[in-house]
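Order emerges. One example.
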Amino acid sequence: MFAFRKPRRAAATAVSAAVAAAVAAALLPAATAAARPAAGPPVPARYAAQKLAWQPCKEGTRLECAEMTVPRDWHHPGTGEDLRIAVSRVRASDPARRRGVLMTAAGGPGGQGLERPAHLASYAPSVAAAYDVAGFDQRGVGRSTRVRCRSDEEFRDFFAGDYRDRSPAALKSVVEKSRRFADSCRERSGDLLTRITTEQTVRDMDLYRALLGERKISYYGVSYATMIGAYYASLFPQRVERAVLDSNIAFGGTWEEFETGQPLSFQRRFEQDFLPWLARYDDVYHYGRTATEAKAKWEKLRSSLRDRPVPLPGGRVLDPNALDNAGIGAVYKGGNFPVLAGALAALDHWDTATPGEKKLADTVFGTYLSAEFFAEFLSVTCADTPWNRDIGYWVKRSGRDTATHPLAGARELAFSAACAAWPAAGTPRVEVTGKGLPPVLMLNSVRDPATHYEGAVRAHRALRGSRLVTVTGGDHGQYQSGNACVDGTIAAYLLEGTLPARDTTCEANPLPVPARPDVRKP
């Protein structure tokens, strides 16, 4: 590890209270024409005068960790108990080439970001030579102050059952479970629920920038972290040098508008990519020779699970919702296709399945969102932007989406009913325009199930001056996946400042080829 250049830290030397206060006030500039959230009062000096006490995160690694304190509410600092934010970094490996800090954040919402700098540095050593790669666990998750709703055991049955059941009793049960989850969050986390927002997070980010002693940062974010990046760039455009937004939330609109586009995109990925792939390898998985046959077999299995759920080795059961959840999770990456297909094949001979096959099935069908992830996910998506609270509307809307796009459409009522019961945050709206920013590099695949291409195009239009790289396949997350075109485009931008002259295209990585069965001659 090298001694990098001495940063201009706000707290690197003993500063007077007046200077510290001035630094703190600079953390929250007046609202610009591009973004008009309430700027809030000056930040108390105790936040700006912090020192980050860096320690190795784990013995024998380059990843360093520290902790910083942030206001519970940036618009009313000093009100309520402060929050802890766990931060991390991998310092640039080549001091002579160091050009600054590349900050990263986690997706989800609900993901943890503390170890992401190490992953990025390992994948892209040329980038890690030129940048200190910095990350953090966002407020609400991981080693930062967490929002608390339920334990994993209490959460165990939230997704159980069959969301396609449209009987009055089933619909009532879904709505009541969502409301009870929101109530448990309110009881255990109080007003913290309304402080876990993207707008609050990007202000944490800017304090982190200041404590690192950097006038500007560059940024890489994937999935939900694209919204974090877009909001940060809109609130603090003068502090952004370069930004890469990979697999984009439609951050120019509301969460409701974005999430109601997901049933279509998940179904599209499932039917146009996964099922044809599964049929192509019928000699391996025996699931049908055409996508239509494979879909029919999936539906037959799903129907049988309503009355006869399959007990899994880990103690959970495979029911219709668990099957859908596995499908939703698998289509994020083409590399997951053989995993889901192998688990489906094991179910065909469950009574004689090997311990390895049953363990695979337990992993695929027995895990989904954790209670902690879901608590953060709802805190952000329900509080960031306005949400329709009319349950009658959601019953009708989810009915239509269940009929046309059932894989993800069937769960729509559970998510939206939780947001309908969520406490209002009164979050300042951040308008994303691109005003005052250098050109931003955006990437999205055309059949991304989670961050659909239609939303990415809307985000691209909102972020004026951005360049969009369209990847022809369907994976979610383009960088760090071994795609030479994507990696080269990002490296040229981060290291040299070179952007495509206009929107462009990269070919996707090919879908995996599974190992054929071992056929021996007699």
